[in-house]
Design goal:
20% strand; 339 residues; five-stranded mixed sheet
């Protein structure tokens, strides 16, 4: 999924990778920028005696290339989202975790304790991902122009906001969030009839759309120079904070029908040299102090302590691989091109 993580990861790549001094016992980590900060690595090494080599990545495709290219042998542990993890399980590139080695998992936030309820992280009763970091994809609204505060994405279709909506330019996500708005239970695996219904609904949205955007900065510029009331916020609360920082009168909701949400997990590679060391790494990062620092530094939600990214009542719908990415892309292009 496209997110602010990709922007951060690309910056990390441009700067090169951060690596600790090698030792006899070195844990090899593949992660997004912000998931393995130098002070955390230093504290982990001090606590365990295990040095850590970190390689930062800039995209999901890069993670796959690095893990698949070495058949999982170049890294011990990696950060991967729920929409991608099953792909690694299918390819035998990851191994299940031993929870007896990760005691902090039992103390995470309630929504992350029963992993069988989180689509994409388990297979045959075994957990291949340990949730670590997340954010929702919700709705940003101008508090001066939209009253009362909306509770659903359905407000995007309200005729009073004709020409005042910013939409994100992505076929996969647009079909998924619109499916949720229509009450479709599984927005990632649509039948032909459901595809037709979602396409028709998206065509109805077009008169309200002022413009489509691809980056958070682009959305902010359009907002500052036009009469915008509503923004489908692909970049979540990071996008909200960036807008508030420049003085925009905006607020954020997680829609009642459910928010598409990304969830990054720690996964153990099939080529891990020391699974016990990898488990110690994950257990260390599930500490409540680390979780609080993660949210403070990145703005993302963490699984250890509560943050502003979600309350217990928010319905978060974790992203999954969709049934036919090409079909969604083609249909989305048809929708954009329609008059």
């Amino acid at each position: 999924m496209t997110s602010l993580k990709a922007v951060l990861g690309a910056a990390a790549l441009a700067a090169g990778l951060w690596v600790s001094a090698a030792s006899a016992e070195t844990l090899r980590v593949l992660a997004w920028e912000g998931y393995a900060d130098p002070d955390w690595v230093k504290d982990f090494t001090k606590e365990t005696g295990i040095d850590v080599d970190v390689v930062f990545v800039g995209s999901d495709d890069e993670i796959w290339a690095k893990i698949k290219g070495s058949e999982g042998k170049d890294f011990d542990v990696m950060a991967v989202n729920t929409a991608q993890l099953q792909r690694y399980i299918d390819a035998d590139l990851v191994k299940p975790w031993d929870f007896s080695k990760i005691p902090n998992q039992k103390d995470v936030l309630p929504r992350f304790q029963d992993l069988s309820k989180i689509s994409g992280v388990t297979r045959d009763g075994k957990a291949y991902g340990i949730p670590f970091c997340f954010d929702s994809i919700g709705l940003i609204y101008d508090t001066d122009k939209v009253k009362p505060a909306p509770t659903s994405m359905s407000v995007l279709w309200d005729p009073q906001y004709q020409g005042k909506v910013l939409a994100y330019d992505n076929g996969e996500h647009n079909f998924s969030f619109t499916a949720l708005t229509l009450g479709i239970e599984n927005p990632f695996h649509l039948s032909d009839d459901q595809f037709a219904a979602v396409k028709a609904k998206l065509l109805e949205l077009k008169p309200n759309v002022l413009s489509f955007y691809t980056t958070a900065d682009e959305a902010l510029q359009i907002y500052q120079n036009n009469d915008v009331a509503l923004i489908w916020a692909n970049y979540g609360q990071q996008q909200l904070k960036a807008m508030q920082k420049v003085g925009a009168h905006v607020a954020y909701i997680a829609p009642a029908e459910g928010s598409l949400s990304w969830l990054d997990n720690w996964a153990l590679t099939s080529g891990a040299k020391d699974p016990d060391a990898a488990a110690k790494w994950v257990n260390f990062l599930l500490d409540k102090k680390i979780g609080a620092e993660l949210s403070e530094r990145t703005g993302f939600g963490n699984t250890a302590v509560a943050s502003s990214n979600a309350n217990d009542k928010d319905k978060l719908v974790w992203l999954e691989s969709v049934e036919d990415p090409l079909k969604r892309s083609d249909l989305w292009n048809e929708i954009k091109a329609s008059q």
